[in-house]
Amino acid sequence: MFNFLKKKPQVLPTFAPLVTDMHSHLLPRVDDGSNSLEMSMEVLAMMKQVGFEEARLTPHYQYPRFPNEEQDILRRFESFCAEVDQHRGERAMPLLKGVSGEYRVDSGFDDRARSKELLTFHFADPDEGAPKGLLLVEFSLHQPMLGVENVLFDRQMEGYDLILAHPERYPYYDSNSKMMEQLKEAGVYFQVNILSLEGFYGDAARKKAFTMIENGWVEFLGTDMHNTTYSEGLRRASVNKSIIKLMEKEEFLNAKLVR
Description:
Elements: E1 20-21, H1 37-49, E2 54-57, E3 60-61, H2 70-86, E4 95-99, E5 102-104, H3 109-115, E6 134-138, H4 148-157, E7 161-165, H5 178-185, E8 189-193, H6 194-198, H7 203-214, E9 220-222, H8 228-238, H9 241-249
Parallel strand pairs: 1-2, 2-4, 3-5, 5-6, 6-7, 7-8, 8-9
Helix pairs in contact: 1-8
């Protein structure tokens, strides 16, 4: 009763300058992200409201927890796109522009990279970027891996550009750590989670995210959407005054990805 009197949650198209979200886990039932078509569409609808016109899905590749295979992910993505398109008349959602992956740098990453064609991003300008494209990688959220810089260097030598997902979330690296500095010097792109800026992952991650951006270390922002709890955080981020000010001042490379 009286539901019609409730004010709808406020959102602003704060992230319209980005055009494209390049980090999300909305391909249903393949990792710790969305578990249904309906959940994915609800999250996509919120992404559209806050300004995203396009989205690229990046399921986890992390053995043995998420033993995804590239060809299976491509087939699932094609089916998912067809299902979403059937419902576009019911709600506005970003266009699904492709699927790549978020690859965990762990003990099995070397073998995967050497034996498979990894799913990557590409810049819209064909003369920009490495031949094999932009590879989104992540580290463990719990402890550093010895020799990780050598593993990343090997990927660069194989023809990939690298994007490090959410560097602000690794508790063993601070915003001015020598490792982060070395990665930037080696040409690794950084992608900060929008929800980190809102405080979704805690105050330490929020402070590191803003500091890295202020240092000029961050080329991409991503939603890292998993489910409706995350999309509520995205709604809050869209009306956060500090984030609005940041979006008005900073430029990121999301819109330069192939659309």
